[in-house]
Amino acid sequence: MEKVVLEVQKRSEKGTLTIRKMRRKGLIPAVLYGHKKDTVPVTLSHEAFDPVVRAGTRMVNVKLEGAEEMALIKDIQYDPLGDEVLHVDFYRIAMDELLKLRVDVELWGTAPGVAEGGVLENYVKELQIESLPTAIPDKIRVDVSKLKLNEVIQVKDIVAPPGVKILSDPETFVVAVRPPREEKPAEEAPGPTEPEVITARKEEPEEGEAEKAEGEEKKEKAPKAEAEAKKKE
Q1: Are 1 and 61 in contact (CB under 8 A)?
Q2: Is 146 helix (H, G, I), strand (E, B) or coil?
Q3: How many structural domains compose the chain?
Q4: Where are the alpha helices (DSSP H) in the chain?
Q5: 111 burial type by CB count under 10 A (0-12 exposed, 13-18 middle, 19+ buried)
Q6: How far is CA 155 from CA 128, 138, 171, 197, 202, in A?
Q7: Are 121 and 175 in contact (CB under 8 A)?
Q8: pLDDT (tens digit per residue) in 129-165
Q9: pLDDT, tens only, 118-128
């Protein structure tokens, strides 16, 4: 493994405003910690660190005030767009120490199932592993060159690199070739509703006609009342 040395400078000032000034100068705030030693706030340049990130390097030698310490790049914080590095955590390590960390999954090859019309679906982007510092891989390669339609690769199917133990759940699906999803036909829009039938309003009788009708009704009721009274007598 190629030795990578990152030179850092100790920083004493803290606070949001100070960190913003550092970033405007092209510096990255970082910390060096671990192995029961004091946590040291440091800075380093984008010019030095960005190529290390692009190469996928995980282990580096952090050079501080002339002394080098082996460290693992434990965490990198990015801006919301994922373009600029905002902060780095360097974790001190010993060469005989087993480390637990997450490593990216890289799909390799062309799945025959895709040629059959299937869709390659990658469910897991990282795997939890355990290894010595000297055996830490940049990525875990997953061979999909024999993956047919409706077949899957689980964590238990992956062959780990020498000296690496995969800790992720062995039953977890990592990648599969699925049939293309059938698009459901668009539902027909409901037809126009029947227009509501409005019953014609009855015409109100004119004022005089109403009084006339009322008088006639009273006349009809009067004889009936007299007849009933005679019966009672």
Answers
A1: no
A2: coil
A3: 2
A4: 16-24, 46-55, 112-115, 207-232
A5: buried
A6: 10, 18, 6, 67, 81
A7: yes
A8: 999 998 999 899 999 999 999 999 999 999 999 999 9
A9: 999 999 999 99
As beta bridge partners, residue 6 has 62
Residue 146 structure tokens: 């024999």
Half-sphere exposure of 174 (CA within 13 A, CB side): 27
Q: What is the pLDDT of residues 21-52, one digit of tens each?
A: 889 899 999 999 998 899 999 999 999 999 99
Single-letter residue type at 200: A
Helices (H), 56-157: 112-115
**230 inside domain:** no
Amino acid at 15: G
Burial 187-218 (b: 16+ CB within 10 A, else e): eeeeeeeeeeeeeeeeeeeeeeeeeeeeeeee
Token couple for 174: 């990592």
Q: Domain residues for 39?
A: 1-93
End-of-domain residue from the set 59, 93, 127: 93
State the burial class of residue 186 (Cβ atoms within 10 Å of its Cβ: 0-12, 13-18, 19+).
Answer: exposed
Residue 111: inside a domain: yes
What does each C-alpha distance from 56 to 31, 44, 95, 146, 205 come to in angstroms? 19, 18, 20, 27, 95
Tell me if 231 sits within 8 A of 223, measured CB to CB.
no
The token pair that represents 124 in the structure block: 């897991």
Q: How far apart are CA 226 and CA 223, in angstroms?
A: 5
